[in-house]
Design brief:
By secondary structure, the chain is mainly α. It contains four helices and no strands. Helix content is 63%, strand content 0%. The chain is globular.
Length: 81
């Protein structure tokens, strides 16, 4: 399921938080965030494994932000507003 983020992460600026990068992330997230078995922390783990982010603080910090965004969006969707 988390492979949906591969296209987003193939862009060399994925971690920089540019508007187009955020749009690519949110587009990918929208495809899986409502799945019962989606977990933002698992998404982050997948991303870290995919690019070896543990050894690159800039990437690791960017993934932390994406995980936070995914948690917030998932919680918002659960509210059903």
């Amino acid at each position: 399921m988390y492979e949906v983020f591969d296209g987003f992460m193939e862009h060399e600026t994925w971690y920089a938080g540019h508007d187009l990068d955020k749009a690519r992330f949110y587009t990918a997230l929208s495809k899986v965030v409502s799945f019962e078995n989606f977990h933002a922390d698992n998404m982050g783990h997948y991303m870290r494994e995919k690019i070896g982010a543990a050894s690159i603080p800039t990437f690791d910090n960017a993934i932390d932000g994406l995980v936070s965004d995914a948690h917030a969006i998932r919680e918002y969707l659960k509210l059903g507003l």
